[in-house]
Structures are given as C-alpha cells and as structure tokens.
Write a structure and sequence with these properties.
The structure is a single chain. The chain has 403 residues and is of the alpha+beta class. The protein folds into 3 domains: 29-103 and 391-402, Gyrase A, domain 2; 119-214 and 360-377, no CATH class; 221-348, Ribonuclease H-like superfamily/Ribonuclease H (Nucleotidyltransferase, domain 5), CATH 3.30.420.10. Helices cover 32% and strands 20% of the residues. It has a 6-stranded antiparallel beta sheet, covered by helices on one side. A hairpin with a 5-residue loop joins strand 2 and strand 3. The longest helix has 25 residues, at 269-293.
Length: 403
C-alpha cells in the first residue's frame, strides 16, 4: 500500500492511512447501507415499491418519488418545495449534497427544453470512442452487417479488448434502443470471441460515431400504454433459437425495450411469436404495477400489437390449446390477462412492426424507417453546459448524493 499522491506525510513517508469505515470495501456494506437508508425513508413516510426495490413513494397530501442507486438518489414530485423539505429532512440524518435539478446521473445526460426532456449519453460515448481508439473511424449507417455471426474464424489472441468494448456498449443501450439487437448479438460470444466478432463490435462503434448525439425524447401527451412484440423464428444459425423483441410505449414515449434470445428452441413460428408475446405481456404487467405504485391511473386498456395472426388467435381461442401443449404455461398466462380484461392483443402488419428492429439485422432503408418511428433524435437547442438556469417552480428531478 502507498500513501495517496499529495498526502504524503514528510514525517512518516512509509506509513499509510488506516481505513476506519468503507462503503465499497466490504461485501456486506451495500446491504447494510441500504437497510439504514430504507429505515430512514420509512420513518419519513415512504413506501417501497413492490415491483422495484430501489423505488420509494410517499403519497399523502403531496407526492414525492425517490429513486436510489447505492448513494446516488433522485428526488422528484409535482411540488418542488415539498421535495426540498424532504432533502432537508434527509440531510438531518445523513451528510447530503444537493446537486440541484437533474443534469447528469450515472453517465446519463438530461436536457430540458420547450419540446420536452432529452436523455442521451454523448459524453460517455465520446469517452468510449477515445478508449477504443475509434474516434477517427469512418461512420456507417447500420450497427450490423447482413452477415450473421457464428463460431467460425480465428480466435482472438487477447479477448480482453473485445469484452471491454462489449461491456461499454451494453451501458449505451439505456438511451439507444437501436443498439439492442446488435449488442445482444455480440454479447453471445464473450467467452470465446473471434476475429469476426471484434469486427462486428467495431462496426457498432462506427455506427455510433455517426450518431453520437442521438438520444431519447420524452414529451407530454397521451398516457395510453401499448407495446409491440415480434420474434425472428430460428434466427440463430448454430442453435436455431429464436430472438424475441419488444417495445413498450407510454403515449409516444418509449419506456422499455428488449432484444433477447429465447431459452428453448421453438418448433414453429407461432410458438416463437407466442413466447415473445408472453414476455412482452409480462413486461406490460410490470409497468402497470409500477404505475399503480405511483398512483398513476391508466385511462385505457393496454394494447399489445403482434404481426402473427396465429399467435393472436391462440391468445383468445381455446380450440388451439390441444395442439400447443408445449407452450401451455405461456398460453395460460396470456389467456388469463385477456380474459381478465387486463390486456388487449391486436394485429399489426409486418411493415409497421416496430419490434422488428430488435429481432434481426436489417437493411439500411428498413433500419432507418423503424428508427424514425421511435422517439430517437438529437437536441437541436442543447446548451454548451449541462447545467442551465433553474426556473421557478421547476418540477424536474433533483439529484442528491449522500456523502
């Protein structure tokens, strides 16, 4: 061990600091800290969400929402004065640093304008391009080529570089739904990466080089909850498993998305589509629970859009049950939601299936068309500094760091 630079004691140059307390050094420290914070929030009238352990809500006369990530906390609500009162109460129990309205949180940059809220990761992406020496690469239009990845080709002599790139790209999917399928593909070769896999990862970086300022827009509007579900049947060339994809919208705002390989081999396209339908229905159910914890009413029945007529028929027609015993669990799950009038499954043509973006590699025109249907864009009036003027009665989330 060595003394920190700038803190060397001239009288004891070989001595080191004795660490009395540590939040990150002990295995049990995160749980102990969370238990202590949980007790503090509970004493202030907050209830933990049953669907998300990091979400705390206090209703009463004034709503206050708290989102916790270790010692970084977001506080928001319709009344800024009530939020400030809560921060003052919390500071009486912990050393708290109020960072003001949310601008930067865990690599996510937040910019508010007259159009809405824009969330992006431009700084994180620029740092990733510099780290991988790809800041001078030639941009491309799609994150993946038409050639499917497999286990052929020479092995990488140093797989650490590949794993580092893929790990960095995974975090970018928080604000870049157009990367979901590409990152899902390159993540499947982490254990034994080959030369073609590294080239695919660098192609994703080249795609990001031409769209580093892109992010997600969140605007006011309809509160109707809807989702698109799709599957690429037997799309994987070496194990013939299907890839499921979905997009969940609250009004026009994209709030959840996924691209994931199914755990079992589907024996028909209907089975693959139906399993994807069940995964999307489960995500919709989780979103509904979160909204109920926030006391946010859903005005209309959630709609689930699917482009497979057989899967839709299977969700509402019990005659199909005898022929599909191998998907019985998913069948009963969807059927219960439909019969309980908690979900509505409808048909959408394949040309307008937005979840197609998360199931397969697409051509340039198809990829750009689907991206144009998502709230992905750039902030034209983004300030040079992330921290702008604080407006009176600003209802934006407040970032708090506990020392």
């Amino acid at each position: 061990m060595q003394q920190p630079l700038g803190f060397v004691d001239p009288n004891s140059p070989t001595s080191v600091c004795k660490l009395k307390k540590s939040l990150y050094g002990l295995k049990q420290a995160p749980r102990a800290w969370f238990d202590k914070l949980f007790q503090a929030l509970h004493s202030l009238g907050f209830q933990q969400s049953s669907s998300d352990a990091s979400l705390f809500v206090r209703h009463g006369p004034h709503l206050v929402i708290v989102l916790v990530y270790v010692d970084d906390i977001l506080v928001t609500g319709p009344h800024s004065q009530i939020c400030q009162q809560f921060i003052t109460q919390l500071s009486s129990q912990f050393p708290v640093k109020d960072l003001g309205p949310l601008h930067y949180f865990l690599g996510l940059e937040v910019h508010r304008s007259s159009h809405g809220i824009f969330v992006h990761q431009s700084k994180y992406l620029i740092d990733l391009l510099k780290k991988t020496h790809m800041e001078g690469a030639k941009p491309c239009c799609t994150p993946l080529s038409s050639t499917k990845l497999d286990n052929s080709g020479p092995l990488l002599s140093n797989p650490t570089e590949y794993r580092s790139i893929v790990g960095g790209l995974q975090y970018l999917t928080w604000t870049r739904p157009d990367l979901a399928f590409a990152v899902n593909q390159i993540c499947q070769f982490m254990h034994v990466p080959r030369e073609q896999h590294l080239q695919a990862a660098k192609r994703v970086l080249r795609f990001l080089k031409g769209s580093f300022s892109h992010g997600l827009w969140f605007t006011k509007g309809s509160t109707h909850l809807s989702a698109y579900s799709d599957a690429d049947w037997a799309g994987c060339t070496f194990d013939r498993r299907s890839t499921s994809g979905y997009c969940v919208f609250l009004g026009s705002n994209l709030i959840s998305w996924s691209a994931k390989k199914q755990s079992t081999v589907a024996r028909s396209s209907t089975e693959a589509e139906y399993r994807s339908l069940a995964h999307t229905a489960a995500e919709l159910t989780w979103v509904c629970k979160i909204l109920r914890d926030l006391h946010f009413p859903i005005p209309t029945l959630p709609t689930l859009w699917c482009d497979n007529i057989s899967a839709i028929s299977l969700a509402s027609n019990p005659v199909f049950h005898a022929r599909t015993k191998h998907v019985e669990i998913d069948y009963h799950y969807i059927r219960e939601l439909v019969l309980a009038n908690l979900l509505k499954v409808q048909y959408v043509c394949s040309a307008d299936q937005l979840a197609d973006l998360h199931t397969k590699s697409l051509s340039k025109s198809r990829f750009q068309f689907l991206c144009s249907k998502l709230p992905i864009g750039i902030c034209s009036d983004s300030p040079s500094s992330l921290r702008g003027c604080i407006r009176e009665n600003d209802k934006s989330p407040i970032s708090v760091t506990v020392k």
